[in-house]
Every structure is written in structure tokens, then in C-alpha cells.
Amino acid sequence: MITAAARTALQRLMGERVRFNALLGRFTSLGVGGPADALVVPEALEEVEALVTLCAEHDVPLSVLGGGFNTLVLDGGIEGVVLRMQRLREIEVSSGGLLYAEAGVSHSQVTRVCQERGLSGLEFSAGIPGSVGGWVTMNAGIPDHEVGPLVAEIRVATPSDGTLWIAREELRFEYRCVHGIPPRSVVLAAHFQLAPGEREQIRKEIDRHIAHRRSTQPIDRPSCGSVFKNPPGEHAGRLIELAGLKGVREGGAQISPLHANFIVNTGNATASDVTALIERAQNAVRDQRGIELETEVRIVGRPG
């Protein structure tokens, strides 16, 4: 719960851009989720810095929703303050192929600028849902390519040391995670080190990746993206399909008939429907193959 003092401080800082008891389902790609105690939409990096400090001073939990992808918000909602970063969308290119992008910059913005400016390296990211903040914290990628190796440095707001730039050498990127970001900090922006490339070739690579996604993933249905991490030497979707669960439904949620590592909202799903399918897939693969499927999607909040 948010105390009266914290509530007053949030209202003074953010005015009408803080909403209390705000339902989050409309802000997630899956379209499910209960309310946030407080939902805040900052318009400048300085406001995020002030919010991080405020939440630390009042001992209020702080979460980042970003673009709402790769996140399953449970039906009971999220305790504390939830940040939506979609208004932080500054992006620019400097000499030497260094691309600067704020946390709210979308995947489509990044690939468009790379194509226009002839910058190569991030073609594989075309169609990976979400925004730059999520890309960094999840080390977004596809087989054989990840964002981490292209990150030159990141800017974070910390609860005790203000704003910091953290160099690539101080970060450790692993499969769908990154280490080296101080606790309770928020990623504000990143620099990506890219290379010169031919615009037409970059465009072709972007188009190829998008076409592949359209043919193999249910991008026309509400989903949270890949539900499970791929086990070493295996593919989660293949294991779920071999378990006979492709197309299986639970309430309004369904394991996609197109790609079994996606759970889609058929129209009236709840987070409980989705978690039931997650558990069913984990149990089936464990029983049949002896493999533990680990979720890639962030599951956050309180049970309903």
C-alpha cells in the first residue's frame, strides 16, 4: 500500500500524470492484469530520477512496465508505483556509429533510424517487441544474436547515487538478463555501438526478419511474446508441441496453434488462465522429457 505521505508526494511531483488504482491490462501486450497502486507516466528523464528517489525515501516498491511486452501482470495487480516509459522516446546518432536511445524508444523506431542512417548491427531486432529499456534489461535477441554485445553503455537512475552511466565492461549480459545494474534502479537510456552499412542491404535484412516473424509467430494476436526460455540445445516451443499442447485452451487463453512457445489472448483471458497454461506446459514437459521449462516472460504482481 502507498502511504498518505507518499501519495501526496507523488501528486505534487506528477500532478495528473499519476493515477491511483489504475488497471494495467490495457497497457500490456497480452491484455490482462489487475491494478497498480499508482501508475505514473513521466515525460522526462529527470522525472524518472525524482521518482526513483521518492520511492526509496518512502519505501514504496517501484516497477517498470515499459511497453508492456514480455510481462504478465497477475490479476491482483502490482503493489507500489508502476512506471510507463513510452513518452521517453529521444533517439539520435552521433559520429562513429553510436546510437543513443531513451528507454521508451520502440523497436520500430530503432530499426527505422538504422535503415535511414545506414547503421548495421541491429537488423535482427526487427519485430522484437518492446522498447529499449526492456531490450537492455532482458538482453533481447534471437538465436545467435543478442542486444548485449552492441551495448556501449547505459544510463540508470539509482535510489542513492543519482544518475549513472555504466560502461559495457561493468555489465554482464546473459541469456535474457543482465547483471551490474544497481538494485532498485531504472534504465533511462542506452548507447549502442553500430557499424556503417548499405541502406538497401539493411532494409532487406530488416524485411527478412519481419517476414520470418509473421510466418512463424502469432503477431496478429495479443500475446506476451516467448513464454519460456529455450533449454540448452532445445526449443521450448518444440517441447510443448511434442507434449501435445499446441492449441490447448484454458479459459480465454490459448497455447498458440502457430508457435507453442506463445500464449495468446482469445478475447477474454485472465492472468490466471495464462498461468494455468504455463504450469500445464511445465508439468507436461517435465513429465515427458525430464526438462524444466523456465519462464522468459516476467510474472509480476499479486495473485487475484
For the structure shown, list the relevant keywords.
single chain; 304 residues; alpha+beta; 5-stranded antiparallel β-sheet; 4-stranded mixed β-sheet; 7 helices; globular
Summarize the entry for a quick read.
This protein is α+β, with helices and mostly antiparallel strands and 304 residues long.
Task: Describe the protein's architecture and organization.
- The protein has 7 helices and 20 strands.
- By secondary structure, the protein is α+β, with helices and mostly antiparallel strands.
- The protein has a 5-stranded antiparallel β-sheet with strand order 6-7-15-11-12. The protein has a 4-stranded mixed β-sheet with strand order 1-2-5-3. A 3-stranded antiparallel β-sheet has the order 17-18-19.
- Strand 11 and strand 12 (163-167) form a beta hairpin.
- Helix 1 (4-14) packs antiparallel against helix 2 and helix 3 packs antiparallel against helix 5 (199-216).
Classify the helix fraction into a percent range. Answer: 25-40%
The neighbouring-strand order within the major sheet is 6-7-15-11-12
N- to C-terminal distance: 16 Å
Largest β sheet strand count, sense and barrel closure? 5 strands, antiparallel
Q: What is the beta-strand fraction?
A: 25-35%
Secondary-structure element pattern, one letter each: HEEHEEEEEHEHEEEEEEEEHHEEEHE
Stretches where pLDDT is under 50 for at least 5 consecutive residues are none
User: What is the count of helical runs?
Assistant: 7
